[in-house]
Request: fold
Amino acid sequence: MARKLNRNLTAAQKTSYMCFFTYGVVILIYLMMQGLISSGSITSSLKGMLIPICAYIVMAVSLNLTVGILGELSLGHAGFMSVGAFTGVTAAVALQDVVSSNALRLLIGLVVGAIFAAFAGFLIGIPVLRLKGDYLAIVTLAFGEIIKSIFNNLYVGVDDKGLHMSMLSDKTQLREGGKLIIGGPMGIGGIQKISTFTAGFLLVMVTLVVVFNLVNSRAGRAIMAIRDNRIAAESVGLNVTKYKMTAFVTSAALAGAAGALFAMNYSTIVANKFDFNTSILILVFVVLGGLGNMLGSIVAATALTILPEALRQFADYRMLVYAIVLILVMLFTNNPKLKQVFNQFRTHNMRGKEAE
Amino acid sequence: MKKLFALVMAAVMTMSLAACGAKEEAPSAPAASAPAASAPAEGTAFRLGGTGPLTGGAAIYGNAVKYGAEIAVEEINAMGGIQFELKMEDDTHDAEKAVNAYNALKDWGMQISLSSVTSKPAEATSAENYADRIFGLTPSASSTATVEGKDNVFQMCFMDPNQGSASAQYMADKALATKVAVIWKNDDVYSKGIHDTFVAKAAELNIEVVSDTTFADGNDTDFSVQLSDAQTNGAELVFLPMYYTPASLIFAQAAGMGYAPKWFGVDGMDGILSLEGFDTSLAEGVILLTPFNADSEDAATKSFVEKYQAKTGEIPNQFAADAYDCVYAYKQALEAAGATPDMTAEELCELMIAQFTTMTFNGLTGEGMTWAADGTVTKSPKGMVIENGAYVGLD
Reply:
């Protein structure tokens, strides 16, 4: 009994050790990048990718919450990113004259994006999360496509009378001095680039804090219990729908904030950017980094965003090499001998801790 | 054992591809790789960079621009005088990748830029051009937002809205039809821009738009609904403001239903004849409005077409000619301004703005081209018709 208790303790220690290790890595990399930027030795190529990488990390970590922790497959994560991007940018543009501070406007954009994406996630969750089976995958897949169609046909403009909206064609009839924000298939153009690397870093940190605290809480343990055995979880009186909803809506909200951050890093954004391919790309980050492994998601998102750019020297063979590298990584990480080495390292580490 | 084998195989493939990649780069882009003997030495050539879709669905445009610009650079470098070093980066027709590609070019030391080939990526990169004060002259990004509000980004092609009204004007002038159907892609900037101005201009010119139908990404394979709508409403002419891939399907499906109206396309239709696996007889009689005619008899066009064919085995389209013109326009402007390759991008930017707003340029895609201060070009389009599997000038 005592032995068992001891083991449980180390497991809890291990998770908290892992989460502080992740924070440390992220902060360390941020400081390193800041150092490089201030000394001017960073390439424009890498500098330009910093904010998208932050956005993709948040996307990967939040999807990992749904796929890895909740154990439900979501194929429309880019849809939430899209909702966040469009609503967040709309808020930021509409407040351009009211709020002069860029940082504050960015914050408002992120929060608005997160709220709308959470609401979209909530709406989907109401019917779907009550069902057993892979329905979430099917519905989120459709959701991604529907969101794309909606934003491709949505026109939103702002003038001194407030926001105007219309569908299918531009019927906003803006007054003098008004501005069309979302122009249907043209998406949003002329966005002020107010996203900063520091904001991206802070968003990554907030995401990690939210996800780790959720996972290590009572709710998190309930969520994982549902993942591992739904019937057993129900039998001890857990409200399955509620806990599933908590995880899913959190995941959607974080994706929305990531979308807003991403969109405000480019001067233009179109709905077609957030298509099925983007959803799958993020799922690849999660699967490659390891289900439930947040640090893995961070590393995978970073590496797979930089990789295609680093392979530019291969010219036409770039994407072919990219695919082969992906296969290599999967083979290497699944290699039993390599796993053994990792395990030895891990047990060695833990034994060292116990000895202390 | 099997796994080990797979690992080794994958590793070997990466290595061999890496070798291929390195080998392939040298002959195909002699101007781009510095160590080649013919390329000018460091600091004596203007570094000219551009992004475009060299892979993916829109690759035909990116590659046309790449080859067209390469031919111009080779010619100019052989002449002596002003020397160029050209580098095109792949953006896969995506704004995010285009900005990445632009940044890679900046690291390479780009001084003047060909901006981006397609519209949406160009909107993103031209904002970077503006922020970094690197002059941009896009061969083919035709949307209004590409140049809007940026004093240092110019276009070599028509703007989308101009194409729509020019098409309607052309139909009215040549009395091609009174009842017209439009099929357009409602999630595409290019298609929408042309459609909107076409419909507005058509109403002015008493051309009746009897059928106005749309499609979008993802449902661009079946056009039977749109075509039968056009047919039942008695459209004599169908206007297709889109790229050639969906257009090729429309032609095939219309032929299948026995519907044979006049077809009218814009510059995105250019390139349909070199589409792999496309039965060119389906495009017989298609009229398109484009500023470049590969069958033109003048010496400059002939020599360009010959060189392009020798390089790629294909007839150059408008995009290639626009890119060729871009490089020559740069040459003319740089010579007139007395610019030297040791100038910074900012210095060159100011000189180029002054030159482009005042100079007149004669190229393959038009005589007496001039640019307004907002970056748009003035030149007249030519009507072309596809006859016996080749583009033939209409006038």
Remarks:
- The longest helix of chain B spans residues 2-28.
